[in-house]
Design a protein that fits this description.
This protein is an alpha+beta fold. Helices cover 42% and strands 32% of the residues. The strands form 2 sheets. A 3-stranded antiparallel beta sheet has the order 1-5-4. It has a two-stranded antiparallel sheet with strand order 2-3. Helix 3 packs antiparallel against helix 4.
């Protein structure tokens, strides 16, 4: 395998919390899948988990070199958590099509959050 691209993103947690308060479901439905919403809403501080997932999606879009748009939308990515705690990305729609057409076979992600910020990085790996 070889590195197709890398991405990183940092998000102010307050910014995500304010968007949730101001726009509610309209914001959440545009950015997060039902699976992500169920996970985040079950957490003690949902806005922190939403912020981390927002950062991961931005990092993946940077690793793809596309940004969020025609080739990769917010809802083409679902950020999941394995029983071990390891985060992973599941692609669908145009995002899955893009990955397949560019022979991206794996996306490694890492996310973190502190009091004020959430951050994530992503490495897209393709067949050599």
């Amino acid at each position: 395998m070889q590195v197709f691209g890398i991405g990183i993103d940092v998000v102010e947690i307050d910014r995500i919390e304010e968007s949730i308060e101001k726009f509610g479901d309209k914001f959440l439905d545009r950015i997060f899948t039902p699976t992500e919403r169920a996970y985040c809403d079950a957490q003690k501080r949902p806005h922190v988990n939403y912020a981390a997932r927002f950062a991961v999606k931005e990092a993946v879009s940077k690793a793809f070199g596309t940004g969020i748009g025609k080739e990769l939308s917010w809802l083409d990515m679902t950020i999941l958590r394995a029983a071990s705690g390891e985060p992973r990305v599941e692609l669908s729609g145009a995002g899955k099509d893009f990955a397949e057409s560019h022979k991206i076979v794996q996306i490694k992600i890492s996310l973190t959050h502190a009091k004020l910020y959430a951050a994530a990085n992503a490495i897209a790996l393709s067949e050599s």
